[in-house]
Amino acid sequence: MFNESITNEISRILANFRPCFSRTNAFSWFVIVIFGLIVRFDHNGVTSFIRWFGLVPSHYTALLHFFRADSWSLGQLLEYWLHVILANCPLITVDDRLVAIIDATKVISEGFKTPGVKKLHQESDNSAKPEYMFGHEFGCIGLLIGGITKMFCIPAMMWLQQGEGIDMLTKSDVPLNIISLTVLKVEQLVKGLAGKSILLVVDAYYAVGTFLAPVGKIVDKNGRRSVHVITRARPSYTATMDLEPYCGRGRPRKYGKTVKLRDVFRTYSEQFQTAKLRLYGKLETISYFVMDLYWKPAQSKIRFVFVLGLGKLGKPLILMSTDLTLQPLDIITAYSYRFKIETLFNVLKNVIGAFDYHFWTSAWPKLQRTSKVQAELPKDPHSLMLIKQAYEAIEAFVNFSCIAVGILQIIALNFQQTVWQCFRGWLRTFSSEVPSEETVQSVVREEYIFRKFRRSLISQIITSKKRKNTSQTPALSA
Prior knowledge:
The protein is an alpha+beta fold. The chain has helices at residues 6-15, 24-39, 47-53, 59-67, 74-88, 178-192, 209-216, 261-267, 328-336, 340-352, 381-414, 416-422, 437-449, 457-465; strands spanning 93-94, 97-108, 118-121, 132-146, 151-162, 198-201, 227-232, 238-240, 258-260, 273-279, 282-295, 300-308, 317-321.
């Protein structure tokens, strides 16, 4: 029966987070927020939870306080979330390493009193997006789960990585930039995964020595390297070959012969090999060539894979791998998984409404849209505390949304037959036996509407906070 499988599964997953909360009431609000993100029909912030669950209106203030409470820690919560992922998800591996994907997304926020809002440049080629916008930039780490027929990028954590005053969220005395902050999050991920080896797939933004070098120093308890990186190199990069045996007079060379990466396609064109790979759901015929070269910014050898014929335009592509033992076809396949995080961002934005938060504080100086310089932050401790609490509330709301999406993905993979049996909608195109997050969401919504989960933990918590007479309407002021 439906009410004996999926609902109990959601309750069981949420019950794992009970040790993260020192107060029962805080845990109850956590359950309401996570389940509310799944079943609500609008994305109007915290008020949607009160409205769709029919809660007592005075609980709105209590719910706002929950996001700023000190009875729970987001770091501990995300650590438990990683344990849930490891225990419930079929993880995708490449060469016995978990595949993790890192990327960032920018969201519009027009709040004058919302901390961290700044003018951001939009690099997307989509003509519907403005070149510049005011908002936040979030970084995200996701783990690849699923199987051959269907893969998901389950979000492990998200964080504010660009905005005014972001430094106050960290405990570091030195201001952190995007790269150094991402390295800290990777270290946090490795710690939460109990030292498991990770294959990190990132875009060309992270193909810099300031990222590859410190990530390469992350080791497990046995001193072995925990993280290897696959990324895309810029054609303008140069690398060096191995040193030839020294003979002659003068000082020996420190580096070997310099290789311009863009010239490899022409210089070694006859040495390219042909192979067929299933990439992006289609069987592609590609040509590739491999070279292990020393790259100065990373202070180590890098495996460069030069690819032709990938994608519709067939533009030349240069991939980098810090693992010299990884086969070139595995590197190409692993990099093709990177688009899964773009699908995740779409679900977070349009299905869950992860970025429709409205947290603000009067202590934040009003956003100066016409000035290039943001007003200085207040100096008094109370105002700084209010700003930090607003920051933490924003990050908490976004990470709760990540947990909600992850629960939908877990159900889609582990209860696919039950979901399809209970699905009452219609799909014009049936693409996979594994349902999407939106399909699972519609099934859970139907169960909530028809009250098929009365004996579950979720039902007990919601019922305890519902208003007695739901027929009352708010009085209109004159």
